[in-house]
Design brief:
This protein is α/β, with parallel strands linked by helices. Helix content is 15%, strand content 31%. The strands form two sheets. Strands 4-3-2-1-10-11-12 form a seven-stranded mixed β-sheet, with helices on one face. Strand 1, helix 1 and strand 2 form a beta-alpha-beta unit. The longest helix is centred in the N-terminal third of the chain and has 14 residues.
Length: 183
């Protein structure tokens, strides 16, 4: 299964449209959203094309192919408007890997992490910075942010396929690649 992975849309409809175009371009089976979907958060400037109702409509059209974990900016009132379930965390078995997906605001950036063992993948967003590295046998993946990237990175998304994690700019340019078997 090919997964498109994105985080931190923060209510920006234009970036959401770009993400959905990337999904079509990639031919991914499902979209995994790592939280912070509708609200820009109190620490961020209002993103360009801020239109959370439009983001809901865009995602609603593909609701049966989306699964999602909750971010620190996802309020209960916002979650009631989304057309799909939003979990606090998810554990995904894919290509022989155990992937623990959370937004990331409750996760340490290196082991030990309760419930995570060497060989597992910790998949998160929150920092708005792409990541693909192995620390003490645990693989850390982050697709960056579609809307409010940080650390000098462009707006980005991730793809998981055939055991490899790649991060691309919304323009399709490869930014990062991580293969746990090679780590």
């Amino acid at each position: 299964m090919k997964l498109l992975i994105a985080s931190d849309i923060h209510g920006a409809a234009g970036y959401c449209r770009d993400l959905l175009a990337a999904w079509d371009r990639e031919g991914a089976d499902r979209l995994l959203l790592l939280g912070d979907l509708l609200y820009h958060g109190p620490r961020n400037d209002l993103p360009p094309d801020y239109a959370p109702k439009e983001v809901i409509a865009l995602l609603n059209a593909r609701r049966n192919q989306i699964f999602c974990v909750r971010g620190n900016c996802d309020a209960e009132v916002d979650l009631m408007l989304l057309p799909f379930a939003v979990e606090d965390s998810a554990v995904i078995a894919a290509d022989g890997l155990r992937i623990v997906a959370q937004h990331g605001h409750h996760l340490p950036s290196c082991p030990p992490i309760p419930g995570v063992r060497p060989g597992d993948v910790v998949l998160s967003g929150h920092t708005h910075i792409p990541r693909g590295e192995t620390v003490d046998g645990v693989h850390f993946w982050n697709p960056g942010s579609t809307t409010l990237p940080k650390g000098g990175f462009p707006a980005s998304y991730g793809v998981f396929e055939a055991g490899a994690f790649r991060v691309f700019g919304l323009d399709g340019r490869l930014l990062l690649e991580h293969r746990p078997s090679a780590a």
